[in-house]
Amino acid sequence: xxxxxxxxxxxxxxxxxxxxxxxxxxxxxxxxxxxxxxxxxxxxxxxxxxxxxxxxxxxxxxxxxxxxxxxxxxxxxxxxxxxxxxxxxxxxxxxxxxxxxxxxxxxxxxxxxxxxxxxxxxxxxxxxxxxxxxxxxxxxxxxxxxxxxxxxxxxxxxxxxxxxxxxxxxxxxxxxxxxxxxxxxxxxxxxxxxxxxxxxxxxxxxxxxxxxxxxxxxxxxxxxxxxxxxxxxxxxxxxxxxxxxxxxxxxxxxxxxxxxxxxxxxxxxxxxxxxxxxxxxxxxxxxxxxxxxxxxxxxxxxxxxxxxxxxxxxxxxxxxxxxxxxxxxxxxxxxxxxxxxxxxxxxxxxxxxxxxxxxxxxxxxxxxxxxxxxxxxxxxxxxxxxxxxxxxxxxxxxxxxxxxxxxxxxxxxxxxxxxxxxxxxxxxxxxxxxxxxxxxxxxxxxxxxxxxxxxxxxxxxxxxxxxxxxxxxxxxxxxxxxxxxxxxxxxxxxxxxxxxxxxxxxxxxxxxxxxxxxxxxxxxxxxxxxxxxxxxxxxxxxxxxxxx
Length: 548
What we know:
CATH topology of the largest domain: Rossmann fold
Number of helices: 22
Largest sheet: 6 strands, parallel
Oligomer: single chain
CATH architecture of the largest domain: 3-Layer(aba) Sandwich
Mean pLDDT: 93
Number of domains: 3
């Protein structure tokens, strides 16, 4: 068979459903092989959008999301999605084209060393130089992409190799199982937990995997040890749980950090230094201790250097600890219980404020009230992400898709497209600032063409709001960050979507409720008021007076 046929067959063997991307002339053999395949091509308007879609597929399913580009500029547009998947722990494969490598009459036209360029932001980056190697390369790449920590892989398929005659030699897919931790390591963990006075559980991004949530819930319910989460650990255990302290949306100086500072031991489940720090460790004998429970050992960092590593399958580690641990009478959780009430009280302060343009806290509460427990919100990147991390309570895993690793703009809408494709029976809402939305707004056409039922909310402040907040916090003058926007309602309508512009909080709630229960793509241009960001996040929290 032809090498491109073999490549597609190898992808089918891996269970690939979709390939997101934009083919070029160097991909035409591959495209022809794909034409009669069971795999569906999702044609996008930009390679960056395709990469974000593939990464989100990996995040939601645990299987490898696949995207396709041509050589040169098409492939270089994958750089940001590759870093997004690599840092965020999302299994993704990029397939890129290349000019013929045996004989070419086009010199160096459009040729970039893509394999070397992507090596620093992937787990695997290789060129196919012999078509007969394709089955082994695909199987190896898929295994590497899904092994903890999951991430991005790239295979470059040159034009002449794609058309070669090759032998059919597909490798069977074998599931990889992680080992359980050693008994001595578990005993060390038990000794630290049982002798601690105020242990506290932290749930990070690595715990947001299959089976781990149930094991964690059992551990918390049995031990009664309170917990908090990182931004990407939200929803692993229901945030309405009576023992939930909330999310460490900031690295320090928030109400939840009053409780974190009281802990003498943090049982850290699934967090590592890739995600923005939820707390800072101190290097002193009297400082709190940390147990690192993850699929892999901790990486020493100035902010994170655990005293004990429990390495192995997280669900198995947590289950074994639950079976072995004995809840202790000397554990003191009274401060945590008081802090939970205090946190909830502060977070609800502006949730029903009716001023317009809308406060982000009020927008978050409206969205939470309208959506069901297992509906999905995808976030782009902006200052509103902090308000969603703090105020949007997740009941189920992966129902608030935010990026706290690369923290890139432009991913919100593409991620929502994939979320709706994967979770067809759930409502999906994309949240983006006006800056981030415009970075991949062209994918509205993709969403309309796919006949998706999708709602996009643009939080519009006519500026790059996150950086303006940081600028004000540093005492600088307001400069260089304001912008003008198109008429987003007319813009949405031009794509065949339906645009809306509410003029009050009540009208926003009515429009949102209608949109999420209607067919088609809806875009809501929502004016937002960030004037309290500095007062709350820079002044109030830095002068916080933790309870005695």
